Amino acid sequence: MPQKGRLLIVDDNEELLFAFQLFLKSHFESIDTIKNPNVLVSKLREKEYDVILLDMNFKAGINSGNEGLYWLKQILDFDKNACVVFITAYGDIELAVRAMKEGAVDFVQKSWDEKHILSTLLAAYQLRCSKMEIKSLKSKQKRLNQEINKNKSFVIGKSARMKEVFRTVDKVAATDANVLITGENGTGKEVVAREVHLRSTRSDQIFVHVDLGAITESLFESELFGHKKGAFTDAKEDRMGRFELASGGTLFLDEIGNVPLHLQTKLLTVIQRKEVIPVGGSTPVQIDVRIVAATNCNLHKMVADGLFREDLLYRINTISLELPSLKERSEDIAELSQFYLEKFTKQYAKESMQMNKSAIVKLEKHAWPGNIRELQHIIEKTVILNDSAKLNAEDIMIGESLKKTEVMPDSFNLIENERVLIKKAIQFTGGNMSMAAKELGINRSTLYDKIKKYDL
Ligand SMILES: Nc1ncnc2c1ncn2[C@@H]1O[C@H](COP(=O)(O)OP(=O)(O)OP(=O)(O)O)[C@@H](O)[C@H]1O
Question: What are the angstrom distances between the C-alpha of 365 and each of 32, 327, 331, 352, 403?
Answer without folding.
Answer: 79, 8, 11, 24, 21
